[in-house]
Design goal:
Elements: H1 3-84, H2 90-102, E1 111-115, E2 121-123, H3 138-146, E3 149-155, E4 164-173, E5 178-185, H4 189-192, H5 199-203, E6 206-207, E7 211-217, E8 222-224, H6 243-250, E9 253-259, E10 268-277, E11 282-289, H7 290-293, H8 295-341, H9 355-405, E12 409-414, E13 419-422, H10 424-430, H11 434-437, H12 442-445, H13 449-462, E14 466-475, E15 478-489, E16 496-503, H14 505-551, H15 557-565, H16 570-579, H17 582-607, E17 615-617, H18 619-631, H19 634-639, E18 646-651, E19 658-660, H20 662-681, E20 690-698, E21 701-708, H21 715-720, H22 738-749, E22 753-758, E23 764-771
Parallel strand pairs: 18-20
Antiparallel strand pairs: 1-2, 1-5, 3-4, 4-5, 6-7, 7-8, 7-11, 9-10, 10-11, 12-13, 12-16, 14-15, 15-16, 17-19, 20-21, 21-23, 22-23
Amino acid sequence: MKIRTKILTGYFLIFTVTILLGIGILYSQLKTSLQRNIETELANSASSIAAMVRTAVDVSIRNHLRAVAEKNREILAGLYALQQAGELTEAQAQAQAARLLGSQRIGQTGYLYCLNSKGVVTFHPRPGNLGRDVSEFAFVREQTQVREGYLEYQWMNPGETHLRPKALYMTYFAPWDWIISASSYREEFRSLVNVMDFHDGILALRFGHDGYAAVFDDTGNAVIHPHLKGNVLDVQDAHGLYLIREVVARKSGLLYYWWRNPGEAEAREKIITFNYLPELGWIAGTTGYADEFFAPLRSLRLAAMVALPLVLLLGLPFSLWVGLSVSRPLEALRRSLARASEGDFTQRVTPDGTQEMAQLGGYFNGFMDRLDQYNTSLRREVAERQQAEQREARARAHLKDVVDSMASVVIGLDGEGCVTLWNRRAAEEFGVAPELALGRPAGEVCPMWGLCRDAVAAALRENRSVVRDKLPGRRGGRTVYSKIEATPLWASGDAGVVLRIVDITDRVRMEEVMVQTEKMMSVGGLAAGMAHEINNPLGGILQGVQNVQRRMAEDLPANREAAREAGTTLEALRGYMQRRGIFATLTGIRESGLRAARIVANMLEFSRRSESNRMPCDVTDLLDKAVELAESDYDLKKRYDFRKIKVVRDYEQGLPPVNCAGTEIEQVFLNLLRNAAQAMGGVHDDSAPTLRLGVHREGDWVRVEVADNGPGMTEITRKRIFEPFFTTKDVGEGTGLGLSVSYFIVTRNHGGTFAVESEPGQGATFIIRLPL
């Protein structure tokens, strides 16, 4: 491409980019300014709306209190007329007035009371205040002076710890010298206010073409709104935002959302600003559509699109002229430079054209004069220097890459303990950049210096590498372990140390896990060995007991024949054994043997991973089957009738099936139900035993809860509840393997989680989470 074309193209591009950039900056600044002004205006409008609502509420409350006070003044006037007519004495009339006044309430705790012009209470709903001189209070003194009108003050009832704002309206009944006062706490104004007094006035306000004002309370009810009624906490915008919940949660602020009014086809972006009225528990806001506020920007964008082609058309000829005025002299200079680049340093140009181009030609000629003299030596010197610098740069970069690529912290220290090397890992670990760490004492930039100080001192003192392993520390609220290596440096003649800090927390944790795993494998192996060793003699015992019982059975002819041959009868032998309790002893031996067999089976289950086939199962069906089994469990009936337990189910509908071994999970549920029934059987109070069963989805998990209202458990018991052979039952009632086997089924066989929440006297809740 010719230089003329390049200059023309470059100048035209610069001109075009400048124009576009200017328009873009102007548009951005205008948009930002307009947006800021709109948000400020809406915020001011929201503040104004809040002030209007406050004023309207105050007026409404004032009118309400005034109506109550003046109505009761009319009642007193009627009683006074009866007094004047002789139908009532003054005492009777005032007594009836007191009953009528005392029967009225204003809001929740507001009431009527009367004073005379001296500040003495002539009526009060609390009889203890009757006749009391209360002129010591400033608002009472103001009442005795003005007698008519609205008054706000602070008041604290007996037993309360702080003052609360209160308001009253008073009117004067001269015949009895009574100042009738209707009072209410400001915090109760919300229950007294008549929204319709200012409802239409608020809705009449408009912001833009379709914007409006609205008022909500802090429970999500639409107090004033052109479209919404009732509780609107669950109302969502077009993008799923719970708009009113967000407003209620923030109480004050600004929010962008997308809204579609009734009758509109598409949602439009909208802005709402809102303020909180704590005394009413209301949130007043103003809202408007963004496209209406930003309409001037659309006009500006359209004008820029029309003006830009015109500007570019005018700039093209000007760019052509500038390019030609520069390109001709430069073309001559280019040709001379091209020949000079081929080794002809005798090239010169004739200075002509503009003053700048003539100067450029003179500079070129002078340059060519000197270039010929220094060409050879300069090239050699430059080449040598570049080679040296490249070698040094490569070595320095390689060394830095080696140190920075290390996964451990590497710190170089001089003999005074100041930092001379700080690798990338050190900067990441301690949050100090290398340029800030170099030259500073290590104690100021290395938080682990307390662990490293003695190793560094020993390395310098003994001139050998010093290693400190498994040093504990705290980071991010947890314990971490580090390995520290301090290696002395003496090659340069100055004392120094290279300090390497390695985070070995994962290694230590893995060692702990391996130790625990070995322990559990040993327990499993021991359990399996014990079970197999016990099984054989246990089978012999059970078979022997069974044979003894069969030899004494009345329905076997061989038994009667053997008794006759021995000179006695089978009935006589059975009578003897019955009287001596031998049958009961045999039954006890058999039950104990069966219980031992169950323990052996549990131990074998504990010692090996189940190989049950997995298939998609409905967890709620498995839980209901476990309840049916518990209701028919003989062992439970002996101690506690499961059918007397109230079972409350809370199952989420439409849950997906869980891929699991159904029999194993059902056994886990049955163990939990048995334990809950036995726990509630030990509670002797009036509360009905209740089991709460819950199944819900929790992300990619199904959460199962089994909760009882039994005695609960202590913190020590809760921590040990899943340990093998740990039981809280009496000797002979439990093996301590049920929950531990269940824990292994859920966590190891199914990759789930198993936890318990409990406090003494608060029951227990077992929580199982199974992956979907």
